[in-house]
Amino acid sequence: MIAGGDSATSPYDPAVYAGVYERVLRHRNTDALGLDVILPTERLSVYDSRSPALDLIPSATDAERFIDEVERRYPTFACSTARSPAGGRPEASPRGWSCGISS
Predict the structure, then answer these.
(1) Residue 77 structural domain
(2) pTM of the full structure
(3) SS3 state of residue 92
(4) How big is the chain by its Cα radius of gyration, in Å?
């Protein structure tokens, strides 16, 4: 809804919604899908779908790549959250970076 408007005088405009969400999701790949069928929502719920839920588990290679990317982008965070092998206080990055914390 547009500020100052009400639903009776401001009809739904899919282009406005698409523009807002494209802006909110600007750092992600997005595609706006136009719908040309009105679904009967009075008696249906998204929870009625019997589509199987699958766990998304990255491969070891993907996990390693994602960790490398996060550590590259946020080196200070990587140091601040690193733990010793025994689970104690932070000592160094799991990748061997020195975080400047001494025992």
Answers:
(1) 58-103
(2) 0.33
(3) strand
(4) 23
What does the alpha-carbon distance between residue 86 and residue 61 come to, in Å, rounded to a whole number?
A: 25
8 A C-beta contact, residue 58 and residue 66 = yes
Phi then psi for residue 92, to 5 deg, are -155, 160
Query: Do 63 and 30 have their domain in common?
Result: no
Contacts of 3 (CB under 8 A, 6+ apart): none
Q: Domain check: are 62 and 102 in the same one?
A: yes
Given this model, what pLDDT does residue 59 score? Answer: 92
- Asked whether the beta carbons of 18 and 34 are under 8 A apart, the reply is no
Q: What is the pLDDT of residues 14-61, one digit of tens each?
A: 889 899 999 999 999 888 888 888 777 788 787 777 777 778 889 999
| Residue 79: Cβ within 10 Å count | 18
